[in-house]
Design goal:
Length: about 270
């Protein structure tokens, strides 16, 4: 006889106290940009939500899945220009849940990869709010795949590191010796604004100037642009191509495979390198 497995509804979904209100917050990752990369669970929750608090980098068409009467609140973050300060956003999620609403906090990529999902959930836990996390395809994985750059490869990289190019204090004070290593792929999120310093530090800490590097802008979308170069020349090429956020920087010899493995062509004129 098969034993019945517990469902999400009767497992509690979080460690919030039993006195929690009826509302629940779902921290949902919407993926890297292509609508088709939205998970089935994310799509269902968006369609059921009473309120959706959404970020700037969500796929076109995702909000069309919402109910016509759902409350939609923009909380986008663009290059340090925040429509809602993080603390106010945290309080908003609590307030909506305490009003008994089913709330979707919709984020680009994956909420636990440079998405501040952990910070928001800490507030929910402290406030006794029920929550659930719905993973999404993170930008590093999705954008690299659509660019034709495998993040690992037996002949090139046995490990991959995700790093942020923009720390909370505005600096790029990273552990450069651990990042500037051979046979390693490093993906920098939010780093295009500091690309000159990132490339300089990678060279200063041991990688050769000719070490391959790439930038993927608007990855997985019709506006995707891929630029391949090396650490010495990438900043200049990015400036010449006028590439701005959102964009990822990928450093590693796996970049050499891009021309051979590329498959996604959003338009004939949008890939350079």
């Amino acid at each position: 006889m098969l034993a019945l497995q517990p469902t999400r509804e009767n497992t509690g979904m979080s460690q919030a106290p039993s006195s929690t209100p009826s509302g629940t917050v779902y921290i949902v990752g919407s993926g890297p940009g292509d609508f088709d990369l939205l998970t089935l669970r994310a799509a269902r929750l968006i369609g059921e939500a009473d309120a959706i608090v959404y970020d700037h980098l969500i796929a076109d068409g995702v909000l069309e899945l919402a109910r016509a009467d759902a409350e939609k609140i923009y909380a986008g973050k663009e290059s340090s220009r925040h429509s809602l300060p993080q603390e106010e956003l945290n309080r908003l999620l609590v307030r909506l849940a305490r009003a008994g609403k089913k709330v979707v906090r919709l984020k680009g990529g994956d909420p636990f990869v440079f998405g501040r999902g952990g910070e928001e959930i800490e507030t929910l836990v402290d406030s006794g709010i029920r929550f659930e996390v719905v993973p999404g395809v993170t930008a590093a994985s999705g954008c690299a795949a659509y660019a034709g750059i495998p993040l690992t490869h037996r002949e090139h990289a046995q490990a991959v590191v995700f790093a942020t190019g923009h720390l909370k204090d505005g600096t790029i004070n990273l552990d450069w010796p651990s990042l500037a290593r051979p046979r390693l792929t490093v993906v920098f999120y939010m780093g295009v604004g500091g690309i000159s310093e990132i490339c300089r530090q990678m060279i200063a800490h041991g990688l050769p100037p000719e070490h391959p590097a790439a930038v993927v802008q608007h990855g997985t979308t019709r506006r995707q642009r891929v630029l391949t170069a090396d650490l010495a020349t990438l900043p200049g090429q990015v400036a010449a191509a006028k590439i701005t956020s959102p964009a990822l920087i990928i450093v590693g010899t796996v970049v050499r495979l891009q021309r051979r493995l590329t498959w996604f062509s959003p338009s004939p004129a949008q890939s350079t390198g």
